[in-house]
Design a protein that fits this description.
By secondary structure, this protein is of the alpha+beta class. The chain has 3 helices and 12 strands. A 6-stranded antiparallel beta barrel has the order 1-2-5-4-3-12. The chain has a 6-stranded antiparallel barrel with strand order 6-7-8-11-10-9.
Amino acid sequence: MLAIVAALSLIYASQKTSQLQWLRHALSYITHPILLAIDAPSQLYDSISNGFSDRATLLSENKTLKAERLILKGKLQKLDAIEKENTRLHSLLDSSFKLGEQFIVASLLRVSLDPFSHTVVVDKGSLFNLYVGQAALNADGVIGQITQVNALSASVMLITDPNHATPVEIIRTGLRTIATGNGIYNQLSLPYLPHNADIQVGDTLVTSGLGGLYPKGYPVATVSSVNSEPGQAFIEAHADTVAKIESSRELLLVWSNQQPIQLIPKKSELEPSNAE
């Protein structure tokens, strides 16, 4: 009751006179720290709670961004692989147009791990009219020839196989010889060059067209070493294949057009028919 009476008295006094204004200001200096002290735990709790919440949000966003980054990097790698594959295919197509012959693109399925048998298996077979002896190229040059044909696949013997021999011609001199596989990837041997043969390091070898294995003019290899010693019957020479066999993913299988073109029509075609 005393507190109520005092409060009512103060209210009445404040409304009627301003003499107690100084007392109100004096009391505010006392009550303000008390109010701050009372509100401090709530402010501290809110600050800590917001801090943990912000940290959890940042961690969650960071985790999400890392996952998205990994996904984008994976897609970028796929796009890079697709771009390189398209580049290889465009190179094959450009090579085929230069050849002016019918062709088909085949992908590698399997590579033989036998060091004495350099063969690969491609994903095309007899259903695509492939045949034994058909030439296989890539965008750079000769790879080998088909030795076995199945319905959906075919085996290709590489030109580096020890059992393979490629009739070649030196562009600079027109000299014809045989390039044989020696079991080393991207290298051929030239074992049948006479001692007086005109051959130099850097000479380009192309298919000569002899023997019916490959059409004439396909790039095969570049001479990398020539060893001519007095008294030897043959020169010891080696050549590096133009086509990088170990990095090939697609092959170009070519049908060579060996049919002669008829330039003069037959006499029967020139004579008018009875109907005319």
